Amino acid sequence: MLAEAAAPLGVEVVVLDPTPDCPAAPVARDQIVGGFDDADALAELAARADALTFEIELADPDLLDRVAEEHGVGVEPAPDTLRTIEDKLEQKQAYADAGIPVPPFRRVDDETDLRAAVEAFDGVMLKARTGGYDGRGNVPVQDPADAADALSAVGGPAMAEAFVDFARELSVIGVVGRDEVRTFPVTETIHREEILRETVVPARTTEDVAARADEVARDVLDFLDGRGVYGIELFETRDGEILVNEVAPRPHNSGHWTIEGSSASQFEQHVRAVLGWPLGTADARAPTVTANVLGDVEDPQDATLRGVDGVLSADCAAMHWYGKREARPLRKMGHFTLSDADADPDTLLARAKELRDGLTFREDATD
Amino acid sequence: MLAEAAAPLGVEVVVLDPTPDCPAAPVARDQIVGGFDDADALAELAARADALTFEIELADPDLLDRVAEEHGVGVEPAPDTLRTIEDKLEQKQAYADAGIPVPPFRRVDDETDLRAAVEAFDGVMLKARTGGYDGRGNVPVQDPADAADALSAVGGPAMAEAFVDFARELSVIGVVGRDEVRTFPVTETIHREEILRETVVPARTTEDVAARADEVARDVLDFLDGRGVYGIELFETRDGEILVNEVAPRPHNSGHWTIEGSSASQFEQHVRAVLGWPLGTADARAPTVTANVLGDVEDPQDATLRGVDGVLSADCAAMHWYGKREARPLRKMGHFTLSDADADPDTLLARAKELRDGLTFREDATD
Lengths: 367, 367
Prior knowledge:
2 copies of one chain form a homodimer.
Chain A: H1 2-6, E1 14-17, E2 30-33, H2 39-48, E3 51-52, H3 61-71, E4 74-75, H4 79-86, H5 88-97, E5 105-108, H6 111-121, E6 124-128, E7 138-141, H7 147-154, E8 158-162, E9 166-176, E10 181-183, E11 187-192, E12 195-201, H8 207-223, E13 228-237, E14 242-248, H9 258-261, H10 266-275, E15 288-294, E16 301-302, H11 308-313, E17 317-321, E18 326-327, E19 332-339, H12 345-357
Parallel strand pairs in A: 1-2, 3-4
Antiparallel strand pairs in A: 5-8, 6-7, 6-8, 9-10, 9-11, 9-13, 11-12, 12-15, 13-14, 15-19, 16-18, 17-19
């Protein structure tokens, strides 16, 4: 999606990805096949590029810094931001130290720490400090007796976070440019099994809460270093308080609605920001709902999506297929967006869910 | 732009183009370098493709038919439509025979024909029957004494067309799908030196005229064969009559506004139609103006656009750079679009012209 947004601007993309013929390959000028920590591959990329950025947090910040310096090319956002974010404990601690509101959390090095946290917070989400993604590496713990099992499931340095009794989850997509910061209208995010399923814009909350969410997000953006798009996941508590959950230093799934729903998408904004160009208009052109299409399979299988004519036929619908070859359980395979000035968010969300119910990867599904 | 629209749908594009590293190359899976009439290149393309289409009228219909049949792959629109359209005289005659309104015209084989036409129509536009594009191959003739010079300038079989005293020029972008036809809202087109400069949506005409334009366009679509997008250029005469000027059997410059201005762009619609998929919503999401960026140079030179920050900074603006390496006099190098629900067409058009006045390829221009 970044390469798709770069193309109209005349910006060519070379992508470094370990999967041969990765999803970006057909729309990129070229793919360098290599791991995110492959120094030779990264050096080849830097030698060909005017600017470097990343879309996944797995790159090694030290390596990025070194290669960028050797080749005299900028990296945005700053690798230092990646350092802050890649360790969830350090990330949370940094926000707390900066006065940014976060849920209660603790460092967990052993069973004693975890049992104490479970008792203090009346149950916790145990999170691997590094490498988690879409709920992987997260284990809910309600009973101190489960501490050993939970720690072994997480399998490394961890943190424990209090469960937030939230009214809803929100996100703010922000973009840090050369000399200005812009935020898109607040997005309502709906998760199940810790995986984003739908987004709703405008978020179905009060204006005050939306304004507070934007304010907190701008504090986060002010704290982090480097130009580019950030996805800032938030909790709205039952008393209307905003807490920061996690931050992604890149275009974020909760901002995919901006492709159809805003004048400039998060991907276009990222390109503009990384290159130091003026930012685009970050508005909401119409009520916009996005639904993720996940692998509804029990085992990996070839990715053939059935029932897609339903989405293609729907009013004001845009389909995005990511080109992944294999459907896996709950893997994000694509999404679709309904953006319609004449509809309200509730109606769009109901339509989106109905349309998604008509999609399946299962061969045994009946139409 | 077609490849950019195909990508989110998971449709890969291989492009056949005679220019190595052509503008589509960076976003296409692959480019086959070859002429539009290169049988080997076309066979290679057909062997790799599930469907064939064209974006320029220069392909040889017989060759397309033959290669498609040999490789068992469809071509849309039908090569027969290309046959009808590639000869402007035959095209006009076919519409007239089908009861579709066109300006008065005549076949011109020699000076005698031309002089007679100039006298009968009180001046004519002499047009080469084949190969014209963006006004090339068109010569206005007011005086019968200029007949010989005009014929030699056109340099081949020609037709003469009466000048239409039009109130404005319009276009309708239509899309013929598997089992339905859709048209986008009528576009107002503004030409200078016979080259499209701006488009305005909604067209600043009456509802009755817009409805009549849509009706005539649908008659044209009904007459032509094959799925895909068609750009239908129209005259609105001073008494509100609609006449067909020319038809392009492909996405058309006057439909570029649909990328930002409609739920599904003309390019996405073309992909859907060629593949036999359901068509998308062809609406106007907001008042939308597009301005072409032409080469403002006296001689060909490297294409470096100056002043582009003005467009990038403008509210609700989207820049499209075509990636052509060389700026030539009046060559279409890109366009930009302003799509803004809170603005009226007149205001958008004035803003677009002002922004374009800030763009130049000339090295000696002062900021």
